Amino acid sequence: MTKKILHSPDIERAQSEFLIPIKTDMGFALIGLKTGKEYTRGMVVYTGTELTPSMLSEKAKNVGLESKDELFEAYLSQIPNFKISKMVGIRQGAEFNLEYV
Question: Given this model, what pLDDT does residue 10 score?
Answer without folding.
Answer: 76
